[in-house]
Amino acid sequence: MQKKHFGLACLIIITVLMYWFITVEKESRRSEVIPDENITEPGIVNDPVAALENWQLDDDAFFVEYRLQRDRVRGQELELLTDFIDNPNTSPDGKQKAEEQLLQLVNTMEKELLVENLVKAQGYQDAVYFQRDNKANLVVKARNLTPVQFAQLTELVANLTRVNINDVIIVENPGD
To answer: Which residue, 6, 133, 145, 168, is the most exposed by fewest CB within 10 angstroms?
Structure first.
């Protein structure tokens, strides 16, 4: 029975990934390439957290673009899961797994919103939160945070997300 659940979970994950890759491929065909002498060659990113620290985070558009991209991907995930749940050919076990994934996705979205809004409530102009591989990442629109501010933000994120305080990463983005 557990093999069946594991197999179904793997099938759902593979389906979501395939849908995402197909959608990205279609969008990449529609996009226009504008040459820019400041663009560097793409490379393989082995450590996404380290890569975050090297992103070009120098403008206000980062926060808007990140949220738009996150919302687009989330919308696709939600649509795929609800279609799977509403499909009459889906087994009861499959529906249950999809409902669990849907609930987990909604919980993740709620956590992101909560962290970002509480950071703004502390007086920061903007923030983006995401969690990957048990690491909580917070990009804050700020310049020259003090050690006390870093500690406060780290503690806030750790308490809200139940992530170990050593696994919280705070990145400054002055937004200039």
So the answer is: 133
Contact 63, 138 (CB under 8 A): no
| CA-CA-CA-CA torsion sign (114, 119, 122, 125) | negative
Could you say which DSSP state residue 41 is in?
P
pLDDT at 13: 72
Longest dimension (CA), the chain: 56
DSSP helix/strand/coil, 122:
coil
Among positive and negative, which fits the CA dihedral 92, 98, 100, 102? negative
Does domain 57-176 fall into CATH 1.10.287.4300?
yes
Q: Facing residues of 113 across strands?
A: none
Helices (H), the chain: 2-30, 48-53, 61-86, 92-121, 147-161
Listed by start position, the domains of the chain span 57-176
The pTM (predicted TM-score) of the whole model is 0.62
127-132 and 168-172: which strand pairing? Answer: unpaired
Task: Calculate mean pLDDT across residues 19-31.
Answer: 52
Q: Is the pLDDT of residue 164 over 90?
A: yes
